[in-house]
User: What shape does this take?
Amino acid sequence: MTTMHEVDYKIYGDDMQYVEVELDPMEAAVAEAGGMMYMDDGIEMETIFGDGSQQNSGFLGALVSAGKRLLTGESLFMTVFQNRGAGKKRVAFGAPYPGKIIPVHLAEIGGELIAQKDAFLCAAKGVSVGIAFNKKIGAGLFGGEGFIMERLQGDGWAFIHAGGTMYQRDLAPGELLRVDTGCIVAFQPKVDFDIQFVGKIKSALFGGEGLFFATLRGPGRIWLQSLPFSRMANRIIAAAPKAGGSGREEGSILGGLGRLIDGDNS
Assistant: This one.
């Protein structure tokens, strides 16, 4: 059985946050490659297969763990940051885009969390980061962002990231909430997750929304985000200048007048 590392932490910032994890000697944290912000002298980095939670099952177990991560579109490798020095040392991990970092103590919510595949930031070493398939055919065919999700298991701290403003809610037994699939950050496994058809084609085609949305039915805790990264990226791409032409701005007539006033005749 893998021993969890009981780390201390502190979250800094408002909209662009980072989490600083304090490690006792030989304690370690695990994170996605490229997520580290800074670390004290005495902390050593090691790139590993998977998440490091299969350390007692040898190379085959590590390979299986890594393979599960590959199915979610993530890297085969993760990075372990271990305190090899004397005394407490600190390592910090930065959020990938504006939003909130959510600390979750897995032991307090039943030892398991289902998270959006891009939500995981870092965790205490020993937390397992696997894959969570939804068995329902509707979610499988039409789930999009919400279909292949990550399963975090263990009894230590895990840190996930929500874009924009985070919304946490405890659903009562049978309570139903309809959500845009991209706005789901995480939920407890006892929450029933499915994908439903909007029903009215006009609403989907002309209302600017998708043809499908997610349903979350209680009991259980859920975390939502107001700004999925995909939504932000689509807006940036739509507003970016086109190759060989001028940028497309909202309100083309006003946009054109603005460029003339600014002296942009290109």
The mean pLDDT is 78. The CA atoms of residues 52 and 126 lie 7 Å apart. The chain has one domain: 8-235. The two ends are 65 Å apart (CA to CA).
